[in-house]
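User: My advisor asked me to double-check a structure prediction for DNA repair protein RadA before group meeting. I don't want to rely on an old file, so could you generate it fresh from this sequence?
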Amino acid sequence: MSLEYLKCHNLGCKLFRNPSEMFLSDQYSDSEYLAGLAVAVIMDGSRTFLIEVQALCASGSIASRQVNGIQASRAEMIISVLMKQTGLKLQENAIFLNVVSGVKLSETAGDLAVAAAICSSFLEFPIPNNIAFIGEVGLGGELRTVPRMEKRVNTVAKLGYKMCIVPKSAEKSLGSHGFEGMEIIAAGI
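Assistant: Sure, here is a fresh prediction for DNA repair protein RadA from the sequence you gave:
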């Protein structure tokens, strides 16, 4: 039996063959790219979902943090790592983080997407909407692999994404698999 989910809107219901569609914007509205958006690949039991993480860095406003769907302590740790390891001057910005559709990001596999969304907003550098991120961010700025990497990357490939950013430590285990023409980028320090 194939997975089909209903998501109701004010104007009616929409049928989703892919449950991740509920957690992603409509291809970022009219724009191909928007700064501050990144796609994370998470697991709920044995199911893999792609979810959109949004970040807004606002300079010149009261330096505060507002977080929805991400543990505040985890978000603060990622922000601190970005400041220390990359030299980003985030302390002078209000930072707002949000996970779309009210999803709670409870596993560390979304760390890299959170960091990418923050950097994208701060640098005003949009991330193309066909890239997904998988990885945990360590205190030293290192990227760490997460459980079930192959299943996560395979889902990303099946959904038509062109690129997946993963920790360098996952490169060997993923390198021999064909992921339907998707490019795997191994990142790390």
